[in-house]
Amino acid sequence: MSGRYAPSPTGDLHIGNLRTAILAWAFARRAGLGFHMRMEDLDDRSHPEYYDRQLADLAAVGVDWDGEVLYQTSRIGRYTEIFDALRERGLLYECYCTRRELASVASAPHQPPGSYPGTCRYLTEAECAAGREKLSHMNRGPAFRLATDVSELAMVDRLAGEYSGTVDDFVIRRGDGAFSYNFVAVVDDGDFGISQIVRADDLLSSTPRQVYLQKLLGYDTPEYIHVPLVVNPAGQRLAKRDGAVTLTDLAKYGWSAHDVRALIFSSLGLAPDAEPSDVVPEEMPREPWVLDAATLEAGPSVLG
Ligand code: GLU
Ligand code: ZN
To answer: What GO terms in the biological process aspect are recorded for it (predicted)?
Structure first.
């Protein structure tokens, strides 16, 4: 029984990532759960220099974890095994759609834009051969999609309550051979006994897909707690261009890691030296934290 934080090592963590990590850690520790760290390093933009920097920044703001850090690149054998088993069960089919084709096809009626309409699900052998031939000229193979038998699934989030969202025939393995985020996240969470998943609420809409796959693979459904994002004053997801947002940037303006932790706790309505037992999911603000990162350049005196 444990929680986890699963950063993508594609850059330094910013204050929004650190806030989500602190919440994931505090909710797990408060509930007496273990807490695991997982590097989602399958992303092409991952860079080894960020692994240790991210881990050092997490430790600096007070997050601790149990056991070794899990690197997804060390799990390809396991993902392949489950992929083969799904294929064996007849649950995967090849998709020959290019990015451009996907962008131009309309989603099925009553499905949100961007969801896959099932174009390649019932092709003839000749159509499949033509699809493979087309892709071979582009130096790629087909993607593999999950043949789902629902279009929507309801799940429960501790903050959002009952949430019903799209389950389309989502990608399990991409045309370049890489396993998809939804697939590897479900396998890792399932294999490592993750019983509580805390992450930013922009991922809530992909959770019904993950729950669907989890059930197919026989894993237990964990508790979900999707927490509000940190946004800039224009309401957009916080990003590096918004000003001083990483610990390294903030250090230049006099912020210690301890000050940053205090700022994050204050955004949660908590005392600067709060303990995990003080961090109650239901009592935290439900709206995004609007942060004007440029003002942090004035230094930690803004903490008051
Ligand atoms: N790697 C994802 C991120 O950094 C998190 C995925 C997850 O928690 O399931 O946004
Ligand atoms: Zn297709």
So the answer is: glutamyl-tRNA aminoacylation
